[in-house]
Structure formats: structure tokens, C-alpha cells
Amino acid sequence: QVQLVESGGGLVRTGGSLRLSCTASGRAFSPHAMGWFRQAPGKGREFVADIDWSLGIAVYADAVTGRFTISRDNAKNTVYLQMNSLKNEDTALYYCAVSPVGKGYDTWGQGTQVTVSS
To answer: Per-residue pLDDT tens for 63-83?
Structure first.
């Protein structure tokens, strides 16, 4: 069974940067994709970005396009989210997730808090 551990969250000033990491444990890890989602206080969980594990093709939500970059290191079973030009509205609990081949996202990490303050 795959387990995900996120890290890299914290408190940052508006316009600053953070880099989130998410490492998957488990044997024979070969998903279809890994992604990042976030949930702000009082709101539902929303898609941020994901990346095809084999091809490296990335997709972004409109709200983060041009500011966030998702990448992966297949050898380390790790996905990253580089977040630049952070805005107050990026404040949320960020989760990584795994989409196995033929399935939607079905495994989630515990989340890492990102707080952007001016």
C-alpha cells in the first residue's frame, strides 16, 4: 500500500516562494500520475497541478499557471511543487495524491500547511 508524506510548507510573505515535496513509499511504485490539491479554510478541495509519471506532462489550474511548477523524480518516488509569486489566496492545506493506472486519485497525504501573509 502506498503512503505519501508531504513536507515544505510554512509561513511566507506575499510574493515569496516555497517548495513542497511529496515522497511515496511502497513497492513497485508506478502510478499514472501524481498531483497536488489544496483546501483553504471554509472551501472545498481544489486541483492545483498534476504530472504524468511516465511522460512528465504537467497540467495546472488557471489560478497557479505561470507561478507554480510541478516536477517529479521517478528514482526517488517524489513529486515537487515549486510555488513562486505567492499570493494571500494561495493560503491552504496542500495535499499530494496518487492516481494509479486506470483509476482516479485514491491515495492522499496528510497535507502540509502553506500560509501567505502580507
So the answer is: 999 999 999 999 999 999 999
- In the chain, the amino acid numbered 77 is N
Backbone conformation region of residue 15, classed left if phi is above 0, alpha if psi is from -120 to 50, else beta:
left
What stretches of 1-118 adopt beta strand conformation (E)?
Answer: 3-7, 10-13, 18-25, 33-39, 45-52, 58-60, 68-73, 78-83, 92-99, 107-108, 112-117
For residue range 1-44, list pLDDT tens digits in order.
Answer: 889 999 999 999 999 999 999 999 977 788 999 999 999 999 99
* Amino acid letter, residue 86: L
